[in-house]
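batch_manifest entry 22 of 60
target: Large exoproteins involved in heme utilization or adhesion
source organism: uncultured Rubrobacteraceae bacterium
requested by: lab member K.T.
priority: normal
notes from requester: please return tokens only, no post-processing; we will run our own comparison against the previous entry in this batch. if the run fails, retry once and flag.
--- input ---
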Amino acid sequence: ALNMHALLHGEDDFQRSLMIVNTSGWDTDCNSGNVGCLLGIKNGLPAIDAGPDWRGPVADRMYLPTADGGRAITDAATETYHIVNVARALAGREPVAPKDGARFHFELPGSVQGFQPDGDPASRGVATVENVEGHSAAGTRSLALRYGHLAPGRVARVSTPTFVPPEAVEMPDYRLLASPTLYPGQDVRAGVVADGENGERIVCRLFISAYGPDDALRVHYGPETVLEPGSAEEFAWRVGDLGGQPIARIGVELAAGSPASGCVYLDYVTWDGAPDVSLTRPAGGGTMWRRAWVNGVDRFDEHSPEPYRLVQNSGTGLLVQGTRGWTDYEVGAPVRPHMVASAGIGARVQGMRRYYALLLVRGGKARLVKALDGEAVLAEADFPWHFDATYDLRLEVRGGRLRASIDGEEVFDVEDGDRPLMGGAVALLCEEGRAGCEVVRVRPLVEGPGHRPGEGVSQTGMV
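--- output ---
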């Protein structure tokens, strides 16, 4: 009733309609969201932009906390394409993937996809961002990074979240469940173009910020280049090891050796490939490494001797980390079952009820299972394991093929030809009992002897 009231008496004025529905009381957050959504569908962006700057402070950022944690840190443009491509799939049409599927492509008018100027003292007030036409090699739009009064010690820095940002760590009422979207070992690519009217050449470099021992962000730099006016550059960067700390944001930094003002256009930013990472308690401590796991178990002990101690009272619990962008990889972990019905590791996890898992099962069995519309046993073998002993479990997924080993001995080699899960996170699983683990390792699959695609691109530096 309140939504109808606001729509009728707001007379298509976005600001007035939201004022009416908010001041009417009751469930103001949901009501405002519904009214805003309907007006956006009906009248488009011009109606929203006709009044105050509603979009700028939000910068397209969205949080979608679910058991599929890799989808949690996202933006309005990304989710728009998800919805559009669901409709296209139902209609039997090919998906839309701007700029060859780049994660940040800026192809929707006005979209900034979470990028905002950083607010730290070295860069506060130096940069602005704006979606503009042109300056793209593979598309029609780009993100203009306008900078003013660059000088030694004063840089322009813009970034977008890849994990729970500091302002959302202690979110009231709702806890943000999320995994990072970017990991060590993945290959980042980005394209930049310097405006032809720039008066000075500037230094441009990529950076990430990762949480540290005190849960404060630390900047880690990637490759850099000198941009002459009118020049373009494509970066390639394999992110290096961060000691188990999660990556919270990725961005671009602009610097100059003398006072400078101008503009650089960010064409795209994207990354792909399987991570090369060991997920464990960082040597320096901190708590955000635990937040990178989506906790789907009854108890995930914070002060246990081992980094991962899982307790599940009934049913199967999962501790999940990663994204659906992980396709072919190997996951391994030394799992120590203690009075459990089953315990093990998961691959291509897409939530609490979609995954592959290699399990040690009560009764002296090893089992390879697939959870999708119920649980199916893909393979099973006798394996006389013991409570409170540690077993090195490894599960490799490549296309529809799954290979599993225990303590270095292959136990299963299976081809899943029935609706295979083609991408997803990793997990530790525990069914009705307790299990422990020191580290979860995720590795890319080797293409050939001593070779990995993209080998030789630059690693991470830190300040």
